[in-house]
Amino acid sequence: APVLRGYTDQSGRRPETRLLFARVGTLEADSSPFPHCVIRNFLRDEEFASRLQGALLRQPFHSKNTDLYNFTQSDDLKSSKDPCITELRSVLFGWFRLWLSDLLDLELEPTVDVSCAKYQHTDVLLCHDDELEGRRVAFILYLVPPWQPSDGGALDLYSTDEHGQPACVVKSLIPCWNSLVFFEVSPVSFHQVSEVVAEDKCRLSLSGWFHGPSLPRPPRYIEPVLPRQKHLPRDESVLYEWVSDVYMNLEQQVRVQQEFEDSSEIRLPNFLKEEKLKEVISALQLAEIHWDRSGPPNKRCYEAADLRSVPDSVRSCWELFCSEAFFLLLSNLTGLKLHTLANDPDSEDDEEDEEQATSSAAIKKDGSTAVCVGEIRRWTRGCYTLLHDSDNREFALDLLLTLGCSGWQQDFGGFTSYVAHGEDEELLTVLPEENSLALVYRDTDTLKFVKHVNQRSSTHWQQPPRSFYDFSITYYE
Prior knowledge:
Blueprint: E1 27-30, E2 36-39, H1 46-57, E3 61-65, E4 69-74, H2 83-104, E5 114-119, E6 124-128, E7 135-142, E8 155-160, E9 166-173, E10 179-184, E11 191-193, E12 203-211, H3 237-242, H4 250-263, E13 265-268, H5 274-286, E14 291-294, E15 300-305, H6 312-322, H7 324-334, H8 350-355, H9 360-364, E16 371-379, E17 384-385, E18 396-403, E19 416-420, E20 426-430, E21 437-442, E22 446-450, E23 468-476
Helix pairs in contact: 4-7
Organism: Denticeps clupeoides (denticle herring)
Keywords: Dioxygenase, Iron, Metal-binding, Oxidoreductase, Vitamin C
GO molecular function, one term: L-ascorbic acid binding
């Protein structure tokens, strides 16, 4: 086939270059799960490949750390004056671009878009499709030491479901010295760089995009959302059964509310009574709960409990957070209007209001429109959530109670980050802390994600169950 013969110019001459674009037996093409190709021994001159590796490693690198990825990256290499980088750049965006244009029957622009990246222990790039305006073909040139599947760092390719959303990894391309991978950027080109678990290897790659006319995008799929619910009819006895006595004290509630109103967030340690805490953790770890994988992986990856399968102690804890009595307690702790009798501005007797703040009579009179929605989640290595354009943008109160995470460290991941829309800087980080209730009020410009739980967490989980849990509930006034 002509594709396997190396590119020649219009006069029939092969360009003078150290690259041999395609030698028989070195090009592997596949259309599943989306069109992609691997060229082995891409650089014909091994000495040049080694010098290029050295030139790339001498570049200044910058840490890149967001919801989607964690690695170090060079500056844009389009203006680098290094001889090796200059030569490779001129060939990639010259002859190789022309060869790709012929191969794909596609007009590719000479726009230079290239940088290099280092992935080291626990670095990762989570599921995405690369599809930005003008990107047409992605490429990656690997300059790595001998690499094994057990080292991680594979280029994982995803299949898609009937909605065009990523489903599961169906092919993994292992990095190999002097190999180049390229694929067409499309609405279904979902891929990731799996977490590097090797502690002593550097996954060095040079990557970029060839630009051209973008493919039309299908209409955005709107996924169904969890239904919101009104509070459950439970009186104040459920609070005294579950909640530590300190938070049932009215003076303490006033202090908590003052602190919350100042910062829009608070952590309440030792929130559940000790005996109840032990019951719930034991049930979550030992019970035969049905856990559903929550996706798609370009938005989230964790497990959520099927509430129909949870044991009584877990169900009772869930009902606590959804109860009318708890809505009223939250109102007292935050000053938000989650119950009609909370901080009633028309009341003439504040003391009387406080006395009936969690009383059965008060609860029975509530006509509030406040609602909540949430899940019981299980977090293991590899779990995460990502920021997304379709994320809910409303004023809301987030509640997070984490269990089974004693001794957790920030460098394990698994923490919740709040960020301003369109900004990189974190506004707030909520670390998993045993039996600590986190309350965070967010506005329409505040988004959140849970950082990828990485391989370092394995040192924390010496024996099963290798997971922690949380009750994650959002309340709307």
